[in-house]
Amino acid sequence: MTDWTTADIPSLSGKTVVVTGATGGLGYETALALAGAGAFVILTGRNDAKGLRAIERICAQFPNALIAYEHLDLASLSSVADFAQRFAAGNEQLDLLINNAGVMALPKRQQTEDGFEMQLGTNYLGHYALTARLVPQLRRAKAARVVNLSSLAHRTGAINLDDLQSKRSYRPWPAYCQSKLAMLMFSLELQRRSDAAGWGVRSVAAHPGYARTDLIPNGPGADGLSWRVGQMLQPLISQSAAEGALPTLFAATSAAAEPGGYYGPNWFYELKGPPVPAKVMPRAKDFASSAKLWDVSATLTGVSFDEIAAAA
After folding, report:
1. Which pLDDT does position 83 carry in this prediction?
2. Which one is catalytic: 128, 176, 210, 262?
3. Could you tell me how far CA 229 lies from the centroid of its own chain?
4. Which of 139, 20, 126, 123 lies closest to 81, judged by CA?
5. pTM given for the model
6. Is 286 exposed, middle or buried (0-12, 13-18, 19+ CB in 10 A)?
């Protein structure tokens, strides 16, 4: 596994894929590789102009690529519902959903249009609602997978159910860490519930290590000593967005990716390198807390994953 590359991706001909946040960075590199393997890939994002440019770039590399772009804002539950409705109208099944979109360490507290703290709402709650709304199409696929993007930041994360939206106290990094811990907990809980209820959906999580994307500049920005030191060390401890996408692609396509697994880079502290099983912190494996977070998510979003799955 330690030398796994995109050359190891099997043919995905006939497969339908949705990638969130696919207009740049990790999402774009993920969509590019999957389109190159023959899948029909639906790129989603908030910026339609960037989406169309992403389509052009992929077609320039793979002229016969089967790709489309759809508007999807994970910070809007109405946008999530609209996308899911459009997808269901045109697609009988969904083979692979990659929950990649995210924002990181926003300096000031912001809210989604639904009143959620922006990082929790975009990184986690939007993806929870999206996955739930797409579960009927996932269940119709022969061997559907959901890949959820977590982060090394989950290691210091904590789920604060008493102030989940950080209204009383907002700090950029703890809020980000909470959202990425939530994504990993969601991924593991989804696999447990799929196994118990026979949904037939494989849930796998991944993280990119330290990948050079626009996520950091668009979040904490180039302020502070820690940022400047990080920039100096970046060539030594980081990897490209294409390399950072490898754990996601492994989780999405490899027969060796275990249901309920978590994959990241193999180098020191999982910062860079080919994909291998990643470290899962004990908090992410707290079944009781994960079940509680699942129920709270259903209440907050107004989307009951279990009811939709049972009716599918």
Report:
1. 98
2. 176
3. 28
4. 126
5. 0.94
6. middle
